[in-house]
């Protein structure tokens, strides 16, 4: 499967977007097509291989429906000066139409009245009339352009000139508000794209040179001055500074960094000049991963969005049919004047326009995804955001998720010289990336001679096996890997047992601290009626102690990765949705298998990002609760829009059919509903969810 993204420059109406998607999906080599009105992009999934002919056909379909929209196959130059006001033409046109419309009222009883109203109507409604005529000529009848054209032409035909012009003008004002809302949402994504660095200062042979971050490779040395963005994932090798991490992690306080500390691309250097060693290429950097996730998030639509999309496709033909029946049947049955029932049918058409629903629902989910990003949480789609409202159980990995994952050696039990024993343990553990292994290496006050290693192998869930150049075989790990028969097995903490050629030579005891807000996270989830489960490879005593301190409902210990997967699968499908939250190092299969996988602080793990549905950009477990707060608020706003829009429309349709509503009321109800629904959706982006903590 090959993905191709087209960038759409200009505004696309929501109903046209649905038609474009349907037509593009019918192209032979297209397996799926998703047009994102909010972002102004269309993503095609092509079967087998890239096909330029299919891409060109998709471009033609877009421009046929939206002639004013420019289609690019690559992202336009982001350094190009932005147009001051892309909607200026529409604003001036509507302003002029309103002035002429007002003059029409002054001369309503004179011969100049009709020409003025007609001029205001044509000036404001030309795009609608043109699209309606074009679509009818293609056999594409039922859309909002058709509704507005029929309603307004009908009003003029029965002598309701002011109302006909007013319907078109205020409909276009509603469309303008919609375009402004979409443009503001697009700007929120554009502002996120600004975290992408423009350059890197590379040191080559002692000379500094500005280069494109894509030209840097791992091992290069770069300089980051105060005020500059960190261009690539790197490690500080010289200097100290504070960095602003808000865009990447949502942290409000700056982070102090010293030599040896990691820098993520997208951080902003605040205070000191530092030199850093590049660890990853630009394509593998944290900022690239974040941008990719955010840009693709809206492709995964929530069930509510999908329902509204399907609803809109059948809604318009139904209301047109009802309006036609309202115009024809009552006069025949009652013998009343045809013009009276035609007027009521036109009111029915005006209020039936589905724009408020079609634009405000996706805008609500878009706002929820944007609010999550601002809080350091990447949600990969509206479907996952909606699913977070249905969670019944959160399953946690312990180390690195609920605990800090920073282990301290608290005791060493051995008959050997302590320094010699720690040297052996550090040599073995130097071959493992596990946090516990790193803590053992850090605790050794000496140099590890890795030239002594002939072969090293990590044994998942158990420990490390190492063969030295002398032929000795060492094991370091838990009691399932190293026999401790006859030894003290009651040591409190995480125990690393070490053996040489099958004989136990000592034990290292480590302790892992609970995260400061882990307990509050569990309490917050309990307040939502969500059960908590902890899965860990740690020993029974450590697991039970941590679970008791945190208030965890259920705990499973001394698990291997396959055990975690088995327990998770046993819990799936039993009631509400199940979330797994892990640090993303060894938990990729479990993250992928859960209803919702949340990777904690795993921006360095490609596998975790691919497998997880939600990525927390730091190690704060409270972000899990915050993501659910955002999801709940988003759902509330979306449901408010649905109930409000459908309720008002149904009421005014009924009043119009009974002759109790005028076309003025219909147009204000339609535009007003759309405007209020859009404003309601935009509240999500403005709410401060950090207060939920």
UniProtKB/TrEMBL annotation:
InterPro entries attached to this UniProt entry: ATPase_P-typ_cyto_dom_N (IPR023299), ATPase_P-typ_P_site (IPR018303), ATPase_P-typ_TM_dom_sf (IPR023298), ATPase_P-typ_transduc_dom_A_sf (IPR008250), ATPase_P-type_domA (IPR059000), Cation_Transport_ATPase_IB (IPR051014), HAD-like_sf (IPR036412), HAD_sf (IPR023214)
Sequence ranges assigned to domain P-type ATPase A in this UniProt record: 196-294
Keywords from the UniProt entry: ATP-binding, Cadmium, Cell membrane, Membrane, Metal-binding, Nucleotide-binding, Transmembrane, Transmembrane helix
Recorded superkingdom: Bacteria
Membrane topology, as annotated: Multi-pass membrane protein
Localization annotation: Cell membrane; Membrane
Gene3D superfamilies, A to Z: 3.30.70.100, Calcium-transporting ATPase, cytoplasmic domain N (3.40.1110.10), Calcium-transporting ATPase, cytoplasmic transduction domain A (2.70.150.10), HAD superfamily/HAD-like (3.40.50.1000)
This protein's record includes keyword DNA damage: no
A GO MF term: metal ion binding
Region (Disordered) location: 66-85
GO cellular component, one term: plasma membrane
Catalyzed reaction equations: Cd(2+)(in) + ATP + H2O = Cd(2+)(out) + ADP + phosphate + H(+)
Enzyme Commission number(s) from the entry: 7.2.2.21
Transmembrane parts of this sequence: 113-130, 314-333, 345-366, 637-658, 664-685
Catalytic class of the enzyme: translocase
Keyword Cytoplasm recorded: no
NCBIfam families: ATPase-IB2_Cd, ATPase-IB_hvy, ATPase_P-type
Similarity comment text for this entry: Belongs to the cation transport ATPase (P-type) (TC 3.A.3) family. Type IB subfamily.
Protein name, per record: Cd(2+)-exporting ATPase
Species assigned in the record: Youngiibacter fragilis 232.1
Highest classification ranks of the organism: Bacteria, Bacillati, Bacillota, Clostridia, Eubacteriales
């Amino acid at each position: 499967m090959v993905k191709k993204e087209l960038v759409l420059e200009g505004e696309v109406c929501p109903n046209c977007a649905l038609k474009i998607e349907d037509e593009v999906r019918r192209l032979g080599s297209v397996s799926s097509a998703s047009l994102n009105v909010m972002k102004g992009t269309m993503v095609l999934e092509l079967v087998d291989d890239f096909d330029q002919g299919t891409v060109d056909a998709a471009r033609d379909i877009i421009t046929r429906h939206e002639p004013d929209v420019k289609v690019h196959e690559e992202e336009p130059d982001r350094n190009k000066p932005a147009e001051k006001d892309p909607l200026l033409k529409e604003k001036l046109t509507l302003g002029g139409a309103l002035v002429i419309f007002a003059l029409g009222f002054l001369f309503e009883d004179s011969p100049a009245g009709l020409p003025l109203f007609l001029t205001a109507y044509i000036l404001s409604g030309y795009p609608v009339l043109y699209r309606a005529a074009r679509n009818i000529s293609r056999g594409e009848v039922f859309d909002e352009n058709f509704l507005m054209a029929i309603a307004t032409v009908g009003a003029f035909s029965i002598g309701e000139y002011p109302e006909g012009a007013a319907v078109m003008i205020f409909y276009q004002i509603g469309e303008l508000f919609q375009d402004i809302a979409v443009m503001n949402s697009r700007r929120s994504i554009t502002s996120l794209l600004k975290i992408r660095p423009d350059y890197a200062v590379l040191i080559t042979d002692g000379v500094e040179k500005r280069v494109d971050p894509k030209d840097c490779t791992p091992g290069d040395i770069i300089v980051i001055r105060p005020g500059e963005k960190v261009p690539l994932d790197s490690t500080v090798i010289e200097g100290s500074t504070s960095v602003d991490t808000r865009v990447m992690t949502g942290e409000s306080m700056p982070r102090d960094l010293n030599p040896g500390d990691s820098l993520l691309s997208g951080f902003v250097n605040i205070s000191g000049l530092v030199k850093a060693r590049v660890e990853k290429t630009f394509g593998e950097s944290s900022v690239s991963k974040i941008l990719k996730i955010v840009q693709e998030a809206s492709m995964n639509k929530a069930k509510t969005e999908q329902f509204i999309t399907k609803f809109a496709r059948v809604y318009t033909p139904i209301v047109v049919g009802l309006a036609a029946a309202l115009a024809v049947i009552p006069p025949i049955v009652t013998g009343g004047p045809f013009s009276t029932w035609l007027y009521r049918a036109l009111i029915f058409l005006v209020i039936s326009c589905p724009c408020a629903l079609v634009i405000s629902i996706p805008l609500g989910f878009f706002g929820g995804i944007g609010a999550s990003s601002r809080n350091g949480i990447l949600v990969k789609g509206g479907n996952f955001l909606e699913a977070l409202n249905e969670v019944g159980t959160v399953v946690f990995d312990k180390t690195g998720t609920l605990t800090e994952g920073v282990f301290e050696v608290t005791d060493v039990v051995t008959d050997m010289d302590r320094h010699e024993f720690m040297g052996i343990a550090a040599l073995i553990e130097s071959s493992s990336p596990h946090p516990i292994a790193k803590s053992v290496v850090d605790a050794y006050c000496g140099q590890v001679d890795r030239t002594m290693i002939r072969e090293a192998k990590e044994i998942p869930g158990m420990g490390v096996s190492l063969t030295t150049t002398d032929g000795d075989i060492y094991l370091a790990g838990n009691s399932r890997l190293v026999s401790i028969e006859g030894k003290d097995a009651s040591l409190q903490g995480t125990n690393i047992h070490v053996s040489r050629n099958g004989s136990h030579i000592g034990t290292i005891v480590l302790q892992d601290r609970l995260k400061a807000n882990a307990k509050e996270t569990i309490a917050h989830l309990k307040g939502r009626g969500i059960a908590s489960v902890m899965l860990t490879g740690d020993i029974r005593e450590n697991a039970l102690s941590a679970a008791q301190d945190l208030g965890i409902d259920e705990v499973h210990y001394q698990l291997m990765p396959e055990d975690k997967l088995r327990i998770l699968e046993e819990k799936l499908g039993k009631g509400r949705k199940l979330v797994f939250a892990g640090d993303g190092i060894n938990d990729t299969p479990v993250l992928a298998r859960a209803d919702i996988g949340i990777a904690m602080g795993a921006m360095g793990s490609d596998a975790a990002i691919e497998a997880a549905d939600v990525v927390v950009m730091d190690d704060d477990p409270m972000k899990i609760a915050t993501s659910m707060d955002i999801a709940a608020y988003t759902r509330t706003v979306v449901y408010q829009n649905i109930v409000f829009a459908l309720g008002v429309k149904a009421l005014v349709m009924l009043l119009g059919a009974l002759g109790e509503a005028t076309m003025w009321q219909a147009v204000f109800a339609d535009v007003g509903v759309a405007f209020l629904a859009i404003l309601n959706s935009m509240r999500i982006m403005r709410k401060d969810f950090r207060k939920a903590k």
